[in-house]
Amino acid sequence: MTGFAITHRTPRRWLRITLSVPADAGETLAAFLAAYTDTGVELEEMGDVQKVTGYLELPEDEEAAQAVRQETPARLQDLLSAARDHSSSSIPFVLETGDLEEEDWDRAWKQHFTALQVTPRLMITPSWEKTASAMMTLEMDPGQAFGTGHHHSTQLALQLIDELFLTATEPPMRVLDVGTGTGVLAMAAALFGARQVLAIDNDPDAVAAAGDNVSRNNLAAAVRVTDQDIMAVSGSFDLVVANITHDTLVGMAPALSKLLSPGGTLILAGILIGDQEHSCRQTYTAAGLEHGKTMCQDQWAALLFRKG
After folding, report:
1. 151 — phi, psi (to 5°)?
2. Topology of 114-306 in CATH?
């Protein structure tokens, strides 16, 4: 029994936005697209070209959706023109957009989501594939949520969480996962030994997907999934994790710092290397936390802080 299924909901639609740009412009444009869509973005290296893909949810009203389809390319073309002026490359800047229906989203995930070892002791497998493994294993179905473990930001967060549980003198027992998505970070913390994990998200589809995944992996005794707002969360946590977007993380700094118990650890991901990385580090050290470690993969960074 899942207890989280959503019924009688209009199927969602997205505007898929793809930017094919010179590598020297990829980081800046990925940061903008992540903020513009308020979701994670996909980065694909193709030699000297970087392909950046994001998804902007379309309104249910068709007239409003059509306005978004027209407004978005115009706004992004202005951005591409500015980026082109600052690029030293002769490679063209290409923008493509197109609708993505909910059933196409499901098919795309199932086509590209395969079993993956994300840390030295954790394997993530699709729920529709049975993979025999002696490692700790999470069976996942992303539904309409973000976070299968394949994105670099999710992998970085999982690696820092695993390392913390392996090396800490007193492993974290109470954990908060902010913007849980599919619930992958929350469930990993429970597998590694956390006794109480609160996973929150303001997206009802994410709450549904995470709840289903928690039940599927028999972790309901340790992990509670809710749509609770971060400002309504009380108490203190030994570990707080948040794999969201840079701007959201910066805005949440006071709340996340307050929820962290003395001696507790904060892990942030969804941050691009460079300006975003430095901004998050500066914001959270100003909030009274001590920077402990930065881990990077491709264009992405994850930061670990401690509360002294």
Report:
1. -75, 145
2. Rossmann fold (3.40.50)
Q: Between the CA of residue 266 and those of 170, 252, 292, what are the distances in Å?
A: 15, 12, 10
From edge to edge, which strands make up the β-sheet containing 116-119?
A: 116-119, 122-126, 136-140
| pLDDT band at residue 108 using 50, 70 and 90 as cut-offs | low
Question: CA 55, CA 110: separation in Å to the nearest integer?
Answer: 17
SS (H, E, C) 261-281: EEEEEEEEEEEECCHHHHHHH
Q: Are 17 and 41 in contact (CB under 8 A)?
A: no
pLDDT of res. 286: 97
Q: Whole-model pTM?
A: 0.73
- CA distances to 91, 107, 250, 251, 294 from 283, rounded to whole Å, are 36, 39, 7, 9, 15
d(C-alpha 68, C-alpha 56), whole Å: 9
* CA dist., res. 9 & res. 13, Å (int): 12
Angle, CA of 300, 44 and 80, to the nearest 5°: 90
Contact present, 225 and 4 (Cβ < 8 Å): yes
pLDDT digits 0-9 by tens, 171-220: 999 999 999 988 999 999 999 999 999 999 988 888 988 999 999 999 99
Segment 73-85 mean pLDDT: 85
Tell me the CA end-to-end span of the chain in Å, nearest whole number. Answer: 42
How many residues does the structure list for the chain? 308
Q: 162-172 burial, b for 16+ CB within 10 Å, e for fewer?
A: bbbbeeeeebb
- In whole angstroms, give the CA distance from residue 51 to residue 74: 19
Single-letter amino acid, residue 271 = I
d(CA 75, CA 266): 35
Residue type (1 letter), 193 = G
According to the CATH classification, is domain 13-107 in 3.30.70? yes
Domain spans, the chain: 13-107, 114-306
